[in-house]
Amino acid sequence: MENIELIPNNTLLTSTPEEGRQLAVKMARLIIKLTQPDEIERKKQRLLYAGDPIMLLQIGKIVAMEFATVAKANNYWIK
Q1: pTM of structure
Q2: Which of 18, 35, 57, 65 is the most buried (most CB within 10 A)?
Q3: Cα angle at 43 between 54 and 70, to 5 degrees?
Q4: Degrees to nearest 5, angle at CA 1 with 23 and 20
Q5: Helix (H/G/I), strand (E/B), else coil: 2
Q6: In degrees rounded to 5, what are phi and psi of residue 6?
Q7: What is the pLDDT of residues 24-70, one digit of tens each?
């Protein structure tokens, strides 16, 4: 299995909330890649969830949870 760096550049710190959101999306994608390392299988599964609104909402929840982690690390809510 490929060694996947789950926290890119080993930091949650970002310059802006927009960068933080992008990092959250990347982190969510990395956990999917770790969970299903077979690229062909991931592409097949993408066809299944791409047309399923419930699955798409679940993806949004995962990104939101990752963003909450990044936001806490950056004190976005305090500034």
Answers
A1: 0.84
A2: 65
A3: 60
A4: 5
A5: coil
A6: -75, -25
A7: 999 999 999 999 999 999 999 999 999 999 999 999 999 999 999 99
